[in-house]
Amino acid sequence: QGRMWAYTVGFTVLPHVGGFLGWFMNRKEIPVWYEKLKKPSWCPSRKIFPVAWTVLYTGMGYASYLIWNDLGGCSSKAVVPLGLYGAQLALNWAWPPFFFGARNMKLALIDILCLDGLAIGTMCSWYRINKVAALLLVPYLGWLAMATCLTIRIWKDNPEQKPGKSQ
After folding, report:
1. Whole-structure pTM value
2. CATH: 1.20.1260.100, 3.40.50.1450, 3.30.559.10, 1.10.1040.10. Which one for 1-21+46-157?
3. Helix (H) or strand (E) holding 74
């Protein structure tokens, strides 16, 4: 019983680790560079992002625990569903360094488009295992759709922005 609690917490907290590190490494670029970019009127306020990501990472982390638990841990049955999850999580964590750190909007766009496909694949693979876990990814997919559209718009509306920090 006590060990299961530790697994639940560990899986739930894991997505936050990369999210926090991405924010921490790039936090200085946000007021310096991001605020100066042309953004659409529907771009969420900067204050919304940490709240949204806290909720989304918690939901997806707990959902990954449900899948892991239902499949009996790190079994051969878990390779594809948890592998898809891990791959999409890695791309999720890679987006801030590409976008804010390298200021490479094209690479960030390629990353998020691949992320979208892997996140959809993750949800589809999870649906057959645990419908609640799959449904916990729905808000994440909705947010990713908005973030993808936002990345596309920022990339298109800021053509003078080049990769690198030579401004």
Report:
1. 0.86
2. 1.20.1260.100
3. none
